[in-house]
Write a structure and sequence with these properties.
Protein name: 3'-5' exonuclease
Keywords: Exonuclease, Hydrolase, Magnesium, Metal-binding, Nuclease, Nucleus
Distance between the termini: 117 Å
Number of helices: 9
Largest sheet: 6 strands, mixed
CATH topology: Nucleotidyltransferase, domain 5
GO molecular function: 3'-5' exonuclease activity; metal ion binding; nucleic acid binding
Subcellular location: Nucleus
Number of strands: 6
InterPro entries: 3'-5'_exonuclease_dom (IPR002562), 3-5_Exonuclease_domain (IPR051132), RNaseH-like_sf (IPR012337), RNaseH_sf (IPR036397)
Helix content: 40-55%
Length: 293
Amino acid sequence: MTPTKRRARAASVARDASKRAKAAAGTDDATAGEAEAKENARDGAGAGAARARATTMDDLTYDGEIVVASTARELEEAMARIEAFDARAGTTATTKHCGFDMEWKVSFKRGAGESKTSLVQIAVANEDLSEKLVVLARIHTAGLTRRFKRWTRDGARGKTGFNVRGDARKLVRDYGLEPSRVIELSVLAKERFEGGCPSAPSWSLARLCEHVLGKALPKDKTRMSNWEREELNESQIKYAAMDAWASLLVYRALMKRDVVESFGGEPYECDPLPEPVESSDEEVEDEDEDEDE
């Protein structure tokens, strides 16, 4: 074989080897691509199933009275109504807790600090939910009135909410007012579900509503709206009231033995969790006497 033919044959062998290598690589890429596509499809199907569950659920609704308190006088009157409501409803294990939430204006400017709390939402109801009331306390305009401070510090009324501990810390930072006896729903849910319960960071109030109440909690961009505007609009009022109301209903459902279920679907018996009281009635009364003087 001449040198020219040997070089031509070597080149041909090299080309064939290159083609085989590319074909093998292509097969590996295709296999990897198919696996990735299947993984994405499975994830998409899971997310789609979750969305489907939410869309097939009825929305959570609130058909009770909503009181918007924008001045000190309005806030005192609203808190007096809550006190009267408490007196009528009694102090059973169910009625001595309220739904609690807060809102504040979110700034999108770089370097801007966090705004102070604008709104505190309080939801109360009697045992059978035939009487209910939501108060929207606009404390950035009304200020911290005597009744509002007394109620917030009162350990006889549990304040239940999602991320309520964070809200409590913010209220201390903003106004030096520390809510007594706050009950974190994400932690309570983890305690009340046997095994298979997601960790607290994976919860949201909307997810708790779906899992515990079987209802969808409508969520939109209202949370990011201007809570310091002169008058709250209808969507803001509805959004704020619903969050406090949902918090109350989720708490009550979690504390009822007949509705508490594990993620496996099996009901189980559980006793109410102990809830430490951070301040006594005597302390609250003493503070009020000092304020009156």
